[in-house]
Write a structure and sequence with these properties.
The structure is a single chain. By secondary structure, the chain is an all-alpha fold. Helix content is 75%, strand content 0%. It has 3 helices and no strands. The longest helix has 20 residues. It is elongated and about 45 Å long. The two termini are 27 Å apart. Keywords: Membrane, Transmembrane, Transmembrane helix.
């Protein structure tokens, strides 16, 4: 839960910085952090990484 709160704080800070500085480059950080967050959440599953990825991709 703490990781999710940190993620949203960084996202809000990047949006504010992008609006103030008028640079879209600040918006790439939240996208990268979203990928890191997904990887961390997958790694927290109590099974091997590859099995977890296969399980997620095979859900229908």
């Amino acid at each position: 839960m703490v990781l999710l709160i940190i993620f949203w704080v960084v996202v809000l800070a990047c949006i504010v910085a992008a609006v103030k500085k008028k640079r879209a480059l600040f918006l790439t950080l939240p996208i990268a952090l979203m990928g890191v967050y997904v990887f961390v959440e997958i790694a927290r599953l109590p099974m091997p990484i590859w099995d977890a990825i296969q399980l997620i991709l095979n859900l229908r």
